[in-house]
C-alpha cells in the first residue's frame, strides 16, 4: 500500500514512512493511494472475529508486507490488552433503534485510546527496528493528549510534547496529562484555544528543516494511522449488530469537532461497509454542521461548551474529505486550501453540496440540549452519557433515518463531572481517575506562538537522557 498527499506533490510513500511523515511535506494530508474494496462475503467471514482479529485483518490491508504478519499481530494484541472490556469496543442497547458503541474502555477512558495505544506501540516498534529517534508533537482539545502520553510514556527512543489550551479542558483531562512525571513527557499549556495549538503544530510540521532536524512525528489525527485504526470499530459495530440478526445498513451518529472520527466512518463506507447515513453531531462550535447544511466552511466565534473536546473551529481532517469530495483531484484541493488560508473561508457549489448531503446529515447541539439529553436518558434508561456522547445521541434523536443508528460513546462520563453535576447527577469516579486528584502536576505555561513552542522544543529534544 502506498500513500499520497491531498495536495498532489507527495506520492509513493510506504506505510511506515507515512506514519513518520505525519503532515505531508507539501502541507497536505496523506491518504491511501487506493482504498481496499470489501465484499459482502468478506464481511460475513469477519462476523465471528474478535476485535483484535478484525483489527489485524483491516490493518493488514493498509500495511501490506512492511510489517510481518506475526509482528503486526503482536502489536495489535499488545495495544488492546490494555482495555478493560474483552470486546474492546462493546455495543450496548440504549433505546429502540439506537445503540451506543462504547469506545471508552482504554487506559484513559476515551475513544482516542483505540488508535493511540496502537500508534504508540507502532512508534516503539519502528524506533527499535531502525534505531531512530522519535520526537512526538501534538495538540489536544482534551482527550488526545492523555491517550498519546499513555501510549508512549517511558518508551525508549521516544519523547513527546503535548500542547493543551490552558483552562479550556476538563479537570480530569488535564490531570491525566499533567500528573505524568516520565522524563520523556513534556506538557505545555498554551495561552489560547485548541485551534491555536493545532495551527502551531501545522506551522512547525510545515517547516521541513525543523521537522527533519528534530525528527518530528505526529500523534494528532493528521497522522493517517489514527484514522485507519478508527475505521475498525465501525466495522466491528456493524458486525456485532449483524450477529444479533440486524440485516441491512446502519447509520452512525458521531460527535466530532476535528472531523477525524466521522471521517474514519466515511472511509469505512467507501471501503464497502453498509452505512446508510453519517450523522455529524457538533456543539455550538458548529462550523462542520453549517458546512453540511449550507456548503460554507467558515470559522465562527469560539464558544466554550460542556463538551470541550469538540470546542474546535478549524477541523484538521476536513481536507481529507475534500480530496474525496472532489474526485481525488489534488489540484482542486490545493486551490481550496489556499483560498481558505487567504480568505479564512471556502464554499462549494451546489452539486458538491448535494454529494455531501447524500452521505451526511448534521445537527449542532446547544449547551442546554446537551444537558437535557444527559438528564433524560439517565432518568429514562439509567444510562449515563458523557456530554460529547450526549451530542451524538441528541443528533440521533433529531435526525430521522431509515436504518437503526449507533451513537459513538466517545468518553466515560467521569472525565466530565463538571457537566454531569449541572444536571444534579452524582457519580462515582473509577479508581484510576479518583487517584489523579492526589498526584502532583507537571506542566509549563507558554505563549500560543510557534516561535515560543519551537524554542522550548529545542531544549526538550536536545537534553541528554
Automatic annotation (TrEMBL):
Pfam families for this protein: PALP (PF00291), Thr_synth_N (PF14821)
Cross-referenced InterPro entries: Thr_synth_N, Thr_synth_N_sf, Thr_synthase-like, Threonine_Synthase, TrpB-like_PALP, TrpB-like_PALP_sf
Keywords: Lyase, Pyridoxal phosphate
Modification type N6-(pyridoxal phosphate)lysine: residues: 112
Molecular function in Gene Ontology: threonine synthase activity
Species per Swiss-Prot/TrEMBL record: Paenibacillus albicereus
CDD domains linked to this entry: Thr-synth_2 (cd01560)
GO biological process: threonine biosynthetic process
Enzyme Commission numbers on file: 4.2.3.1
Start and end residues of each Tryptophan synthase beta chain-like PALP domain: 102-398
Requisite cofactors: pyridoxal 5'-phosphate
Keyword Lyase: yes
Domain of life of the organism encoding this protein: Bacteria
Domain Threonine synthase N-terminal: 2-80
Entry's family note: Belongs to the threonine synthase family.
EC class of the enzyme, as a word: lyase
Name used for this protein in its record: Threonine synthase
Amino acid at each position: 500500500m502506498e500513500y499520497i498527499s491531498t495536495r498532489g506533490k507527495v506520492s509513493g510513500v510506504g506505510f511506515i514512512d507515512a506514519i513518520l511523515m505525519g503532515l505531508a511535506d507539501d502541507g497536505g494530508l496523506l491518504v491511501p493511494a487506493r482504498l481496499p474494496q470489501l465484499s459482502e462475503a468478506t464481511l460475513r467471514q469477519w462476523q465471528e472475529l474478535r476485535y483484535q482479529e478484525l483489527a489485524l485483518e483491516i490493518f493488514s490491508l493498509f500495511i501490506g508486507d512492511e510489517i510481518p504478519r506475526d509482528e503486526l499481530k503482536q502489536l495489535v494484541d499488545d495495544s488492546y490488552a490494555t482495555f478493560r472490556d474483552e470486546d474492546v469496543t462493546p455495543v450496548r442497547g440504549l433505546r429502540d433503534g439506537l445503540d451506543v458503541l462504547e469506545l471508552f474502555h482504554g487506559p484513559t477512558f476515551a475513544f482516542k485510546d483505540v488508535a493511540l495505544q496502537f500508534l504508540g506501540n507502532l512508534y516503539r516498534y519502528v524506533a527499535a527496528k531502525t534505531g531512530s529517534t522519535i520526537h512526538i508533537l501534538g495538540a489536544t482539545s482534551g482527550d488526545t493528549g492523555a491517550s498519546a502520553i499513555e501510549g508512549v510514556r517511558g518508551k525508549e527512543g521516544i519523547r513527546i510534547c503535548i500542547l493543551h489550551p490552558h483552562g479550556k479542558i476538563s479537570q480530569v483531562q488535564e490531570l491525566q496529562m499533567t500528573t505524568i512525571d516520565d522524563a520523556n513527557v513534556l506538557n505545555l499549556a498554551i495561552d489560547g484555544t485548541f485551534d491555536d495549538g493545532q495551527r502551531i503544530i501545522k506551522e512547525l510540521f510545515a517547516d521541513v528543516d525543523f521537522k527533519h532536524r528534530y525528527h518530528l512525528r505526529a500523534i494528532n489525527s493528521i497522522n493517517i494511522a489514527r484514522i485507519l485504526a478508527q475505521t475498525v470499530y465501525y466495522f466491528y459495530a456493524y458486525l456485532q449488530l449483524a450477529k444479533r440478526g440486524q440485516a441491512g445498513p446502519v447509520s452512525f451518529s458521531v460527535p466530532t469537532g476535528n472531523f477525524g472520527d466521522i471521517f474514519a466512518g466515511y472511509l469505512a463506507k467507501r471501503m464497502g461497509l453498509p452505512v446508510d447515513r453519517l450523522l455529524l453531531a457538533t456543539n455550538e462550535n458548529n462550523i462542520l454542521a453549517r458546512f453540511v447544511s449550507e456548503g460554507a466552511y467558515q470559522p465562527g466565534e469560539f464558544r466554550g461548551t460542556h463538551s470541550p473536546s469538540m470546542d474546535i473551529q478549524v477541523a484538521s481532517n476536513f481536507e481529507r474529505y475534500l480530496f474525496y469530495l472532489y474526485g481525488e483531484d489534488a489540484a482542486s484541493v490545493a486551490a481550496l486550501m489556499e483560498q481558505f488560508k487567504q480568505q479564512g473561508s471556502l464554499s462549494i457549489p451546489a452539486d458538491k453540496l448535494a454529494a455531501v448531503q447524500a452521505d451526511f446529515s448534521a445537527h449542532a447541539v446547544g449547551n442546554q440540549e446537551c444537558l437535557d439529553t444527559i438528564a433524560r436518558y439517565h432518568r429514562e434508561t439509567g444510562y449515563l452519557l458523557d456530554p460529547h456522547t450526549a451530542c451524538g445521541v441528541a443528533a440521533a434523536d433529531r435526525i430521522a433515518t431509515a436504518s437503526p443508528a449507533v451513537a459513538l460513546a466517545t468518553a466515560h462520563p467521569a472525565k466530565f463531572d463538571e457537566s454531569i453535576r449541572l444536571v444534579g447527577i452524582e457519580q462515582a469516579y473509577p479508581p484510576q481517575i479518583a487517584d489523579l486528584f492526589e498526584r502532583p502536576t507537571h506542566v509549563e505555561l507558554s505563549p500560543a506562538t510557534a516561535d515560543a513552542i519551537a524554542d522550548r522544543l529545542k531544549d526538550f529534544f536536545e537534553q541528554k537522557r
